[in-house]
Amino acid sequence: MFSKIMKLSLKIIRTKKCAYFTGARWKRFISDIDTIDAHVGVATVGKTMPYRKHIGGTWHISVDNNYPRVDIRWWYETFDVGNPLKPTRISIALTYHNWDNLKRAIVRMAEEIPAMTAVSHCWQDSQIQQMLCNECTPYTDIMDTNLVKAAEAA
Fold it and tell me: Which of 3, 6, 63, 131 could join 39 via S-S bond, C-beta 3.0 to 4.6 A?
């Protein structure tokens, strides 16, 4: 219940760039910090290992050594066959130094607000519920949902 009502935003004051988190999105982001950190470590030594992960809603986090940043960005769906998702300008692009600062702030926030650890991932009882959840599968086509409903009924 707590994850449904919690809303959190990160904002860079100087650039006014923002990233928005629901409780479930925040939990996915927090649980992926070690993986993101490993990709940052690889990118800092110049290895090419692009990384992008859906963290909820239409938000993705990515690390790529072509752009030495940890990018928390809102994406949108296109109907291009080769590239169905494209990034928007709504994002926060953190330098690796600022990424370390954010990690320290997250640890401090968890110490100051212990209730943050009670936030849970999205969960559903069936595949249909997951497909209808805008947080888990925001790009689901209604035809896909109808096919799964028909298969479950059979």
Answer: 63
Per residue in 84-97, pLDDT tens? Answer: 888 888 889 899 99
Contact 68, 96 (CB under 8 A): yes
Question: Do 73 and 23 lie in a common domain?
Answer: yes
More confident residue, 15 or 107: 107
Q: Would the CA dihedral through 28, 109, 68, 71 be positive or negative?
A: positive
Same domain, residue pair 72 and 142: no
Q: Scan for tokens 């401090």, then name that residue.
A: 108
Distance CA 139, CA 71 (A): 20
Dist CA 65 CA 49 (whole Å):
7
The per-residue pLDDT for 15 is 72
Helix (H, G, I), strand (E, B) or coil at 2: helix
**Number of domains present in the structure of the chain:** 2
Same domain, 116 and 129: no
Contacts 24+ apart (CB under 8 A), 13-17: 17/91, 17/92, 17/93
Q: Tell me: do 57 and 130 sit in the same domain.
A: no
Query: Max Cα separation, the chain?
Result: 56
